[in-house]
Amino acid sequence: MLEHLDRMEAHLRELLEKEGGWLPFERFMHEALYAPGLGYYTAGSRKLATPTDSAGSSDFITAPELSPWFGATLSTPVADVLRDTNSLDVLEVGAGTGALAASLLPALAELGLPVNYYILEVSADLRERQQQTLAAWEPQVRWLDRLPERFRGCVLGNELLDAMPVRLFCWSQELEVLERGVVWHDHGWTWHDVPADSALSRIVRERMPPLPGYLSEVNLQAEGWMHGLGDWLEAGAALLIDYGFPQHEYYHPQRHRGTLMCHFRHQASDDPLKLVGLQDITAHIDFTAMADAAHASGLEVLGYTSQAAFLLDAGLLEHLQSLRESDAHAYVLQLNSVQKLIQESEMGELFKVLAVGREAAVPRGFRRDRLHSL
Ligand SMILES: C[S@@+](CC[C@H](N)C(=O)[O-])C[C@H]1O[C@@H](n2cnc3c(N)ncnc32)[C@H](O)[C@@H]1O
Question: Model's pTM, two decimal places?
Answer without folding.
Answer: 0.95
